[in-house]
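note to self: dont lose this again. the chain is below, predicted strucutre after it. 300 aa total, dont forget to put it in the shared folder this time
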Amino acid sequence: MITRRGFMRGLVGTLGLGAITSAYAMAFEPLYRLNTTHYAFTPPRWRPGHTLRIVALADFHFCRPWMNEARAAEIVARANALKPDIILLLGDFMAGMAVFKSADIAPAIWAGILASLEAPLGIHAILGNHDWWEDEGAMRRQEGPTLASTALEKAGIRVYENDALRLEKNGHAFWLAGLGDQLAFINEWRAGKAKTRGRDDLAGMFAKITTDEPVILMAHEPDIFPRVPDRVSLTLSGHTHGGQVRLFGISPIVPSRYGQRYAYGHVVEENRHLGARLPIRIGIPPEVVVIDLGGEAPGA
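---
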């Protein structure tokens, strides 16, 4: 068993500072650190007396050794211990960046681990860009279903793509909506950048919301946020990995056209609320996010 102290002592004894920094970002944080971050607020259009505890998880990128089966089970246990009303999975289950992994984990295996998540209102998921990009069959067909969505649905987890479902807690109804991924297909590479085509259909998704109850939106990439209408109480996103490297509150590189604007945390713009988060980078360790809507956060 390698302890944290032994792990760091070995690194210091054998690696230079630059290598230590890289190893810390790619090994120590994903393998050993796990934060729980709480937010509590009442968003617009949320009905008085309606309390809802959400646990949000994003960007697992399941692979060995970084996000292995034991690590995934630890995150599931942490999420369940928070006693959420509902659990939302915000995409990017499939691993990318082959140079940093020793082996992929089969979708049936990681989906089976996620099936142990527990919440009275269920476990709900959307796909991220890597759930398309790392699926050769889906990319070749330019169509689903993906390996990720098939595994999740077989595990009893509903996957949303431009879809919405009306839910209710203690007589208070709300809509949960999930947007198709905005970067699903890579059409070509030009000047070192991917030209992508999404599967998102914001208008089509909202056409399925047939009453005026509040809406919670899942969208893997936060770049959709400026286009989200006022009727959405809360948008939850992943993808930015907290900016990937975050030092002194600043992320020099953020995979978003808006840079720092939606990199991390609870963002409020024009009375609209966005939660953006992700794991496994320097200064942004893996994270379980719990959001208490309509009340103060309990001391969980």
